[in-house]
Amino acid sequence: MVDRNKIEATLKVKEQCKYEYVRYKPIQMNMEDKKDMQTIIKEHINLGLIEPGVSAYSSPGFLVRNHGEIKRGKPRKGLVLSEKKSTIAVNKIEFLGILIDGIGIELQEHIVEKIRNFSDVLKDKKHLQSFLGVVNFAGIFIKDLAKYRKDFRPLLKETESSKWKWEEIHTQRVRELKQVCSNLPKLAIPQDEDELVVYTYANDYRWAAVLMKKTTTGEEPYRYTGTSEKISRSLTEKFGRLAVNAQVAGQVQRADLDIV
């Protein structure tokens, strides 16, 4: 439950510290606003929609129903939920270019369109970085993304524009990425009943992790991540199949992985 005394004490301190009060522009509220806020906090915590802060350095979470009614500066602590930007109990969510529904995860169409709108021939290093930056939004959906990116690495290392040399292989890779991004798969969402295992590996130079799902026939990889873009063929063979965008470090043997 929310600590009512903590809320009141926080407000009291802010009222006493006028300099800090102005400097950090906290929320202005009268006694009625405070009581209303406390009621809303309790209601939403009871419903499980928000939780009180667990950090020793954070205030309890709170909800602002209308930002036009309460002037909000830069909050230093706690959670602010905007009525205009927050939607509760929906069956579809759009987040950072990703569309998530009850079936799976897919890339939003406007990201795909932006990738398709790039020219097949990129004019300079900055143009290439911009293209690859947008492609990264689709990274988790593209199998063997490193295979497409490797031919661009020499261009990304060039510091002088006079040495920029765009070749036919680069144009081909751009076209291939556009084609791949036009037919991206929809990724499955792990279910509550799925038995998931994380294997990790680390040494002085690199680290890697693999999220696996236990099945009736063994284990199936969900996702790889690590400090290198090299795809570990030996790791893939150990686990039996290649996951989407399987990026892990080096030749990691299964014996080196720790179960979590």
TrEMBL record:
Any Pfam family: RT_RNaseH_2
Domain called Reverse transcriptase/retrotransposon-derived protein RNase H-like: residue spans: 166-225
Name assigned to this protein: Polyprotein P3
Gene3D superfamilies: 3.30.70.270, HIV Type 1 Reverse Transcriptase, subunit A, domain 1
UniProt source species: Sesamum latifolium
